[in-house]
Amino acid sequence: MQTTVPPVPHLDISVDNVSVTYNNARLALYNASCTVEPGTITALVGPNGSGKSTLFKSIMGFLQPNQGRVRVGGLPVQKAQKRQLMAYVPQADEVDWNFPVSVYDVVMMGRYGYMNLLRMPSQKDRRLVMSSLERVGMVPYRDRQIGELSGGQKKRAFLARALAQEGKVILLDEPFTGVDVKTEKGMIDLLLQLRAEGHTILISTHDLASISTFCDRVILLNRTILAEGKTADTFTKENLEMTFGGLPITKLKQVFDAAEVRAS
Ligand SMILES: Nc1ncnc2c1ncn2[C@@H]1O[C@H](COP(=O)(O)OP(=O)(O)OP(=O)(O)O)[C@@H](O)[C@H]1O
């Protein structure tokens, strides 16, 4: 009998009027509203400190906004979490690299949400961990302690954890930082495959030059959402100047020239 793999359901992310203030009274996000369309790769772009990680953490349910509402696939965040709908690739500085776990263990953590309290991996868990390691080319490093990896290998290990988790919505916080060009290209190819499989992907990146080569849509953020839409309409010099406030036009020209070279 032939078995068919069920398609990934297309899920959106809806952020409605979200404000977040940290304990030090710092307003990190103010009235932020945006939509991540289902089955797209959407770039989240803004300068340092503009609230990108805060928005990710609000979507993941790691922090509770002071105001507003986030829904994933129409569900409140906690329900979406319980159903394992979202997977998250954190920024490198959010991880304790001295923690005595191997790459294999980290990827297996992506399966914890499916296990009982004893956390005994099933055959399916082990199979998914290995196939996720394979997809990111990390099988040879499976027994390494996570602190003994290069920057690019660390990113790939956490991307494998997200794959093992089978989240339909994948959030990646600056996955290209400290990654060489070849690894970045490999990761972009994988993101394009995941999109073709129906995943919804939100990615923050400071690599402005590559955005127009693989992102369908862009959200521009600086404490609030300044613009969102299709990359061709939204990722414009004017919008970037507004978002980065004062980034010299010559620097922007370099960014666009580099993007054109990459796209050609
Ligand atoms: N845990 C925290 N406690 C207090 N303030 C915080 C905390 N995390 C972030 N902030 C502040 O909130 C604002 C938004 O930070 P956030 O990390 O979301 O920005 P970002 O766009 O992800 O920055 P980067 O590009 O540098 O990673 C910044 O002013 C930051 O200093």
From TrEMBL:
Pfam families: ABC_tran (PF00005). Residues 13-248 form the ABC transporter domain. Coiled coil: none annotated. It comes from the Bacteria. The keyword rRNA processing does not apply. Keywords: ATP-binding, Nucleotide-binding, Transport. The keyword Cytoplasm does not apply. GO terms for molecular function: ATP binding; ATP hydrolysis activity. InterPro entries: AAA+_ATPase (IPR003593), ABC_transporter-like_ATP-bd (IPR003439), ABC_transporter-like_CS (IPR017871), Metal_Ion_Import_ABC (IPR050153), P-loop_NTPase (IPR027417). Belongs to the ABC transporter superfamily. This is Metal ABC transporter ATP-binding protein. The lineage of its organism: Bacteria, Bacillati, Cyanobacteriota, Cyanophyceae, Leptolyngbyales.
